[in-house]
Amino acid sequence: MLNEIPVVIAGSGITGLSAALHLAESGVLKILIVTGPSIPTSMTAPGMLSGGQRDNFTRIAAAHQVDFAKTIWQFGDRAFDLTTRWARNHGVPISTCRRLRLIATPEELTEATIAVRELNKAGLTSQILCDKQLAASPWARALGPRILAVQEDGERGGWIDTHNMHVKLRMAAQANPAIQFIDGTVENISGYADPELNITIRLNDSQSETKKLQTIKASSMIAACHLAIGDLIPSLKSALVSSADQWLSTSGPLDSSDPQSPWNSPGIAWSAFHNHEWGATQLDGKILLGGGRILRKWAGFEATESKVEAKISNYIVEQTKKSFPHWRADCESMLEGAGLDCHPCDELPVVGPMYGEGRILVATGFMGQGLTLGFYSGFCLAKLLMTGRCDELPRRLWPERLRSLPDQE
Ligand SMILES: Cc1cc2nc3c(=O)[nH]c(=O)nc-3n(C[C@H](O)[C@H](O)[C@H](O)COP(=O)(O)OP(=O)(O)OC[C@H]3O[C@@H](n4cnc5c(N)ncnc54)[C@H](O)[C@@H]3O)c2cc1C
User: Fold this and answer.
1) Helices 66-89 and 370-387: crossing angle, nearest 10°?
2) Pocket test for ligand 1, best of 225, 237, 312, 375 (most atoms within 8 A of CB)
3) Where in the sequence is the domain holding 362, given as residue range(s)?
4) Residue 291: Cβ-neighbour burial (10 angstroms; 0-12, 13-18, 19+)
5) For residues 47 and 41, what is the distance between their CA atoms, to the nearest angstrom?
6) Domain assignment of residue 408, yes or no
7) From the CA of 40, how far away is ligand 1's center (Å)?
8) Which ligand 1 atom is at minimum distance from the Cα of 15?
9) Which ranges of 190-278 would DSSP assign to H, the alpha helix?
10) pTM for the predicted model, two decimal places
11) What is the structure's pLDDT at 329?
């Protein structure tokens, strides 16, 4: 059936395109991507890459136990590896080097020390550099006194040209005879009791009123539409919380006092102060900086829109200057952006088949790490759909865990 009736994918961001390409690779002959009403977040996201998880290991272990923290950490590592491999094989500008956490408070140092111990016990790479060890490390010279320690989480950090990645993914999908695009928005899914699903699509820019709606049969559907999944599948709506975030890209180097400083190499991804500040060194000598959500109302949660706010850009720049006193900020050359990200209520991505309707699969809620987790989720859903199982996808990420939440129709 998979080869006669199409698999429909709602959303043409990194998750949807990855799902389509992996489905085609595993032999599905008919895949329809419904592009959606807006530019994908994947295309405008700034491009910090991180393995493991954005939050420190202790945060995940406290909420979900150590064993599962290890599982989800490894999920993040595999996502990083698969995405960066695809990007390199397709000539996407990308650099990978290190993932670092800059520790700015004694409380955070206590937590990071425990996190490193737990990571190592779980067989994962991490070390804490403080006092003499930090002073002897190549990272120390560029850092201001604000930074008490550095947690070094290995080589899975980096930066990717997201626009180019999106273009390359789309070109690969367009070149694949199994994949077709429909310029429209999935409006409704029905036919749950039928052998095939009915997918109603509102076509974008349709010439005539009568042609605006099109209903097609689908063997299954992958909803890869970020926050909008809640509009399509109401039982997920209350689980998906929006969060406004912003970033800027400006000139480097981070350490102008030493051209040989490792901070001046591309592909270093760091976060500071419990992820309230983050950044990455880009390939072209520029640096990417983000964060400052704490300055927004409700820390940006449940925002309905996200705009660049000058006070947040200033905060990001000022905090970065404190961490890197040799950085000569050139705010004239700043490129800024903002967007809405998706945080599930239990802070775990939502990836897998819908409870009660296994023909509908979803992938969303990547909390600032969607460039890798979205790509990998596309792979996992394609495998699940084709083979009926995917051992790489932890069952705890499936939406079934959210079934007791109230519907928000
Ligand atoms: C400001 C900001 C900075 C970020 N920075 C980073 C970062 O540095 N690194 C990182 O890894 N991640 C980052 N993220 C997160 C990352 O961008 C997202 O997790 C990821 O892009 C989500 O990809 P996606 O394909 O799932 O969704 P999207 O890329 O948003 O694509 C979803 C698509 O679905 C379409 N759609 C919506 N409704 C429908 C419908 N009914 N039918 C059909 N299509 C529909 C939309 O038009 C859209 O094109 C950031 C997010 C934000 C907001």
Assistant:
1) 90
2) 225
3) 7-44+164-237+347-401
4) buried
5) 11
6) no
7) 5
8) 25
9) 229-232
10) 0.97
11) 83
Are residues 292 and 326 located together in one domain of the fold? yes
8 Å CB contact between 160 and 93: yes
∠ Cα 246 252 258 (to 5°) = 140
In a domain, 59, yes or no: no
CA separation, residue 220 to residues 8, 41, 54 (Å): 6, 24, 32
Q: Are residues 155 and 113 in the same domain?
A: yes
| Same domain, residue pair 217 and 333 | no
Please write the tens of the pLDDT for every residue from 248-303: 999 999 999 999 999 999 999 999 988 899 999 999 999 999 999 999 999 999 99
The pLDDT of residue 1: 44
Of ligand 1's atoms, which has the minimum distance to the CA of residue 377?
A: 26
User: Is there a domain that residue 193 lies in?
Assistant: yes
CA 174–ligand 1 middle distance (angstroms) = 20
Atom of ligand 1 nearest to the CA of 47: 8
Sheet containing 48-50: order of strands: 48-50, 157-160, 94-96
Q: Is the per-residue pLDDT at 334 higher than 90? A: no
H/E element holding 9? strand 7-10
On whether both 25 and 129 belong to a single domain, the answer is no
Q: What is the CATH number of the domain that holds 305?
A: 3.30.9.10
Q: Are residues 245 and 324 in the same domain?
A: yes
Kindly tell me if the per-residue pLDDT of 352 is higher than 70. yes
> Can you give the CATH number for the domain in which 31 is found?
3.50.50.60
Decide whether any atom of ligand 1 lies within 6 Å of the 228 Cβ.
Answer: yes
Q: How many angstroms separate the alpha carbon of residue 226 from the centre of ligand 1? A: 5
- Whether 249 and 260 map to the same domain: the answer is yes
Do 268 and 320 lie in a common domain? yes
The answer to whether residue 168 is domain-embedded is: yes
Dist. CA 188 → ligand 1 center (Å) = 20
CB atoms within 10 A of CB 32: 19
Ligand 1 pocket mutation, candidates 18, 42, 380, criterion most atoms within 8 A of CB: 42
Same domain, 319 and 245: yes
Query: Is any ligand 1 atom within 6 A of the Cβ of residue 352?
Result: no
Using the mean position of ligand 1's atoms as its centre, give its distance from the Cα of residue 106 in Å.
35
Ligand 1 centroid to 60 CA: how many Å? 23
Ligand 1 mean position, distance from CA 128 (Å): 33
- What does the mean pLDDT of the chain come to? 94
